[in-house]
């Protein structure tokens, strides 16, 4: 009985070996090397080729939204490492990068206009001030004229989405209300905590880039009034 069980086990092991490449010993050795590797030891960079850059770009864009400038910065980092490690021709690698970026743009994988608008809307919903949104887009390599157009469109969208009673209101005020709701500040706190936490809540809005008048209006406001303002945020 024991012999039969042993043979069955051996057959199962042989079957698994064939399924995963027919070399169970090699797999065990690979596992052993992985265990022996010092996790603090930096991995060796990959040698850059045009195909590698294309694969990297598509892999990244499948997982993250990015501007052209952001992707270019990441690819530049890969190229620098390959030049230092393998002596890759930097001019040839630059040509590969330009080709990859053009292919991604033509295929619609990179669209700075759509990216900027989507990110601006997302940040406004999170309660970010307009100037903070503009600074964020600038840091991500969006061109200044596109930032201006994006902010103009964002303000228009917010105004169109607003209840009639608050149309024409500065969207910064609505953004401050959205941040207060998200962090449960001011009128979104328990009533017994509002007075005690007032100064702390004002400071929290100030750190987000909102002026004193805006912060005071939100922290001293009532939820019904703020819900009207929040229509500018929730409707975009």
Automatic annotation (TrEMBL):
UniProt keyword list: Cytoplasm
Database matches in InterPro entries: RecX_HTH_2nd, WH-like_DNA-bd_sf
Region annotated Disordered, chain positions: 1-46
Biased composition (Basic and acidic residues): 1-10, 26-46
GO cellular component, one term: cytoplasm
Domain RecX second three-helical: 111-150
Subcellular location: Cytoplasm
Family statement drawn from the similarity comment of this UniProt entry: Belongs to the RecX family.
Record protein name field: Regulatory protein RecX
Natural source organism: Thalassospira alkalitolerans
């Amino acid at each position: 009985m024991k012999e039969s069980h042993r043979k069955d086990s051996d057959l199962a092991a042989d079957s698994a070996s064939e399924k995963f490449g027919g070399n169970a010993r090699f797999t065990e050795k690979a596992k052993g090397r992985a265990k022996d590797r010092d996790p603090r030891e930096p991995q060796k960079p990959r040698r850059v080729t045009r195909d590698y850059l294309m694969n990297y770009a598509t892999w990244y864009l499948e997982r993250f939204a990015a501007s052209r400038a952001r992707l270019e910065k990441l690819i530049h980092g890969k190229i620098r490492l390959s030049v230092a490690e393998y002596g890759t021709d930097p001019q040839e690698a630059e040509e590969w990068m330009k080709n990859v970026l053009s292919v991604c743009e033509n295929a619609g994988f990179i669209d700075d206009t759509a990216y900027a608008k989507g990110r601006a809307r997302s940040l406004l919903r999170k309660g970010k001030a307009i100037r903070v949104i503009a600074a964020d887009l600038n840091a991500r390599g969006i061109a200044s004229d596109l930032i201006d157009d994006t902010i103009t469109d964002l303000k228009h969208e917010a105004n169109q989405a607003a209840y009639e009673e608050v149309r024409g209101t500065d969207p910064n005020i609505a953004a401050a209300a959205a941040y207060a709701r998200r962090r449960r500040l001011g009128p979104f706190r328990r009533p017994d905590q509002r007075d005690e936490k007032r100064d702390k809540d004002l400071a929290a809005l100030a750190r987000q880039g909102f002026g004193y008048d805006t912060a005071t209006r939100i922290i001293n406001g009532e939820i019904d009034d703020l819900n009207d303002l929040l229509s500018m945020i929730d409707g975009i």
